[in-house]
C-alpha cells in the first residue's frame, strides 16, 4: 500500500469489496487508511488509486494520538452500483468539539467525535470520488479509544428482506480507565452499543436517517430507538454467519477476558458489570470474579467463545467464509489476536448461546514463498496489529496495520494448520469407574478427597526435591499400566480465576516419581512450563509439544472455573500424542515423543489444585508392566 503516515506507513484497518453492477462482485477492493485516504485496489493486480482523502476533506479530522482515530471504516450500500451511496467513519476533535453538534447529548468530558458520513458518487464506476456528501450521525466520546468502530450492511439481506439497506454501527464505550461510566448499560445513550439505522429514512434526529420499526427499543421510554444491542466495551468487529445468518460480535475486554457473542436484538452483554462470563468490579479492573448465584435475574447475554488475556492481548473478530471458498474452513469462524497476529478458528456450530464456550484452535501460515511463516514475520516483527477483510466471494484478507500491507488467503490445506493425530490402534482394554480412594495412590494422601465419583486435590503440594516436575499428583493404580491409550476425563481447576498460572496436569507413562510424561492444562500460555506436553526423565521437565514457538504455546486450555472434557491420545509405537478439549475435532496440542513408551496414568497439579471425574482409559496393557 502507499506510504502516507507520519512514519511512512499506511495504517490499514479493513478491506471490503465495492458492489458491482447486477451483483456483489466488482473486482475493486476498498481499503481505508486511518491516516485519511480511502484507496481502491484492483482485486487481481493489486494496483491502487486514492479514491478520496478524509483528512483533506474535514478540517477537524484527527489521527492523533492514533489509538483508533482517523478514517476507520467504509461501508458500501448494497445498491452502490446504481445509487452511488457509501458511508465512512472518521474522528474529529479541535474546533469540532464546540462548533459541531452531536446527534445525541454528549458526555461532559467529550474529547473526540465519531462521525458517519454518507457520500454519493456521481459515477459509481469512477476510480476517484466526485459527488456530494452529508453528515448522518455524530457521537461524542470521552476518550480517543473505543469510539465508532465497524459499520456494515448485512451482506445476506437481499432486496425485500427486512434487513436490506440497514446500517449496523458498532459504538464503543469511549471511557478512559478508571473512569468507567454507566453509559454502556443505559439504552438511552449511544456509547457501548450496536446501533441499527436506515440511512434512507428520515424519522431519526434531524431527519438525517430512519429508525427501523423492528429495532428492539423502539417506543420504550428513555431508550434510543437506534439501539440494537447494548452492554459493550469495544465491539471491535462483527460479521454474519453465511450458514444461518447469526450475527457474531467480537469484543475486546478490559484486562482479563476477550469474547465473541452471538447477538440477537435487545441483547445486553453486561459491560461494565460483566466482562465475558465473569463479574467485573470497577474498583478492581485487573481481575474478574465468579458470577453470583442469582445471575439469571440480570438477563445478561454471555459469550459463545472467550479467551483469557494470557492467550493474546486483544481479540480481533473475523468471518465464517461461505462453504466451498476454503473447504477446510467450512463452518469455521476465523479470528485472531491483534498484537501477535496469530490467526485462530472455532467451529461456528459450537457457538451455543447460554452454553459452554466453544474451544478454538491455532492456524499455521505459509507465506508467498511456500515456507511456513507467521504474521509477525510478514509484518516485520514486533506488534502486528492484525485485521481481517473479506471480498464479495468470501475470500479472506489478512492485514497488518503495523506495516500497511494486505495479504489474500489463496488456499487452506491440511486441517487448518493442525498436526496429524495419532492413527494407530490403541487397543481395547478398558479401565473405568475409578472414583474411589482405593483406585488411586496420592503422593500426599492428606491433600486428597474422594467424593461422589470425584478425585479432588484439596490444596497445593510442596515442591519436591530433584528434577523440576509437578508438585502433587495421584497415580491411578486400578487397571493395568498402558502403552498406547486414550485417556478421557472431565477436569476442573479449583484455584480462583484471578490467578493467571492456575493449572492441572494429566500424567501418563508414569514409571517413577522422576520418570513420566504429562499434559499441562493452564490458563497461561506465555511461558515455557505452561500449557503444553512435557517429559520428566530423571531431569527437569522438557517440553515436547508442537505448539510452543518460543514465546507462546497452544491457546489456554482452561481459563474459567467450569468442568472441561479432556481426551489424550497416545500411540506408543510412533510417540504421536494429541490432546483434545471439550469434544473438539482438532487437537489443542500435539507432540511426537518416544522417551518412555509405557506406564501408569494420573492426575495432579504444580502449585494449584483441582479435581477430576469420569476417568476412562482404553488402550493396550504394557508388557511387562512398568
From TrEMBL:
Glucose/Sorbosone dehydrogenase domain ranges (all copies):
164-277
Q: Which Pfam families match?
A: GSDH (PF07995)
- What domain of life does the native source organism fall in? Bacteria
UniProt region (Disordered), positions on chain? 1-25
List each coiled-coil range: none
Which InterPro entries does the protein's record reference?
6-blade_b-propeller_TolB-like, Glc/Sorbosone_DH, Quinoprot_gluc/sorb_DH_b-prop
Q: What is this protein called?
A: Glucose/Sorbosone dehydrogenase domain-containing protein
